Amino acid sequence: MRDLPPLSLLRAFEATARHQSVTKAAEELFRTHGAISRQLKLLQEHVGAPLFDKDGTGLKLNAHGHGLYALVTSVFDQLEQGYTRIRTQVQRAGLHVACSATFAMRWLVPNLADFYRQYPDIGIRLSMTSARGIRSEGADLVIAWDLTSYPEADRQRAIRLAPVAFGPVCAPGYASRAASGTRITHDFTSSAWTYWDGQSKERIGTGGEIAFPHTHLCIEAALSGLGVALVEQRLVRKELSEGQLIAPWGFLELPFGLMALPGDGVPPPDFDNFLRWLRERLAREAV
């Protein structure tokens, strides 16, 4: 058992010492003058020594009072800061969302302003990671294009968010030699090219391959004229509209879609709202 006075006595003492007035302390704490005086008396009895000296019509701390005031102020400051931090966390508990760095930078973050307009009290904490590491983030929700490398149980419980359309893109000056040029592939989602080859009659990038671990790097390689990258159209909308990249062979809808995989634990309260927003926002963009 801790040998400490009740917190109410320490609050009365701290307010009185700060104001150097029982009356002002009583006003701040919504107590009567008599109640604060009794609490100060009980505290001094617990300490075993006076804490104040008379100073005209007011009070001033004596040596024991100064020592206790410094201690109480420090503890109250820490308590207030910690309590505020916890309240903020509770009020903006939010969601931990994991997705590829490219999807986060090129679609999710640019669209979050729309989400916060609808749900200003829900905080989103992002983990931007490669497809290889995305499973280890402990997120409430994982967003991914391709779950073929995931366990069957995870694929069964994944939620389809939207169809996806991939297409070969390249710099305008590269198109004339794209058929026999270099194919830019992604280290962890090479199945996209397999699906494209199976559904399209176009033979593109037969002259070799270069691979990168992030879609963003694949896009940058295509922009630099290094070859042809197969990319989901949402991720290159800006470059296509500005003419930095072209998609001469169009886009094909691929079967795996954009998927949401819930975390292993109980979904947080804001899970359904975020999922609903994702689906609605993605549906506005024609595939």
TrEMBL record:
The entry's keywords: DNA-binding, Transcription, Transcription regulation
Keyword Plastid carried by entry: no
Domain HTH lysR-type, chain residue ranges per copy: 5-62
GO biological process, one term: DNA-templated transcription
Keyword GTP-binding: no
Pfam family, one: HTH_1
MF annotations from Gene Ontology: DNA-binding transcription factor activity; sequence-specific DNA binding
Family per similarity comment: Belongs to the LysR transcriptional regulatory family.
Protein name stated in the entry: LysR family transcriptional regulator
Organism in which the protein naturally occurs: Pandoraea pneumonica
